[in-house]
Amino acid sequence: MRLYNTLTRQVEEVRSSSDGRVTMYTCGPTVYRPVHIGNLRTFLLSDMVRRALELEGREVVQVINITDVGHMVDDSSEGALDRMELAMEDEGLGPWEIAEKYTRVFLDDADKVGLLRASEYPRATDHIAEMIEMTRTLLEKDHAYALDDGSVYYDVQSFPEYGKLSHNSLDKLQPGHRDLEADDRKRHHADFALWKRAQPSRLMKWDSPWGEGFPGWHIECSAMSVKYLGDRFDIHTGGVDLVFPHHEDEIAQSDGAVGHQVVSTWVHGGHLRVERQKMAKSTGNVYTIDDVIERGFDPLAFRLLCFQTRYRSEMNFTWDAMEVADRTVTRWRQRMAEWKEAPREVRSAEAEALDARFREAVADDLDLPRAVGVVGETVSSSIPDGEKYELLASWDAVLGLDLERMAREGFEVPGDVRALVEERDAARAARDYPRSDELRDRLGEMGWEVMDSSEGTRVRPLA
Ligand SMILES: [Zn+2]
């Protein structure tokens, strides 16, 4: 399998660690609210990388962290509350309860969109000791310095490769850059916090060699990735918004602490917009997977919708496209139910060719639009039904669309359709053929194919 590596700006073969397994770390959710569909698209990327590697018969060790200690909002300004603590105020829960609640919500949402469970979900608050340890190492190696107030900062000028991931050079990072904290006491304006002094009002804080405080956000991922995957691992994924500063800072920390390159391949997913607009609370378009379900769509159809855009490109989510994806998944499942009984034959050359094309598309930097095209082509091809069934069932290991659902459970005929079927049988018994034809047309408009059998009218969903 080949993936685009943000670090080298090239599509490269994914190599395995020494024991043949592929090790992968994904920046997980900050658990103070439910994740939105844009976050889910990013998590789906790591799920797809994993499934694609597994399709090639490789074993993947996947770690997704849970950020349950606050960061981001105004950490720099005195006395400001972080996001965890703001959520706590809103919901009247303690910080640990908020984290517990939204960790559960995240795992549920991940299940709903068919994300395979990771090997580990380490929580930041369970790894404060590892973060302190790494901070101590960085101080020893002169990659960091402590301020009088008990904060510790990373010294970016001590790491000559700083900027290699985001292609930011220090002279390009002007003071006042929106991602840089302003603090006159820093040696360089791009220096970032490894450890911060806690305000007295702060609830989540820990003892450290530098006094009571809490870790910076970036050190969390360095400490946990190295702990669970070792000081050399294969793939690190995240959203494109994490390239700078989060992942740039992670490289400076991890590589600085261990003395060599830790991550081989950095993979980043593009943004998701809703009806061409940026998702924002103020616009009211921040959707969760529950919003998708409430509108009557199968959450797995959201996967198919995501597959139609290359993972590095910006995706435009629309409810119309969601509806089309939902119909497509349903239709494929219906066809699978029809093909179920067909004999499974020795594969024809045509089926082999389709299979090879599907696998090649997936392996080619996850070219899922092309892979989905091959699925569509297969469905309407003239290969025997049994072969179609086998191909789609095997591809579903990577697509994760539960394509065998109706083959397993059968499809249900809704009540209004059943009533028309009975009415048609009655019309036919009374030899009222015009009425019978009218009812056939009506059923057709409703998406049902009508077949006459010796037991009367039978229907199945139209292909
Ligand atoms: Zn991270």
* Main beta sheet: 4 strands, parallel
**Which ranges are low-confidence, i.e. pLDDT below 50, for 5 or more consecutive residues?**
72-80
Strand content: 5-15%
Order of helices and strands: EEEHEHHHEEEEHEHEEHHEHHHHHHHEE
- Strands in their spatial order, largest beta sheet: 4-3-9-10
The number of distinct β-strands equals 14
The overall pLDDT average reads 91
Q: Helix fraction? A: 40-55%
Number of helices: 15
Rg calc: 27 Å
Which ligands, by name, code or SMILES, are bound?
A: zinc ion
Account of the 3D structure:
By secondary structure, the chain is an alpha/beta fold. Helices cover 43% and strands 14% of the residues. It is built from 15 helices and 14 strands. The strands form 5 sheets. A 4-stranded parallel β-sheet has the order 4-3-9-10, with helices on both faces. Helix 10 packs antiparallel against helix 11. The longest helix has 21 residues. The site of zinc ion has 3 residues, from loops.
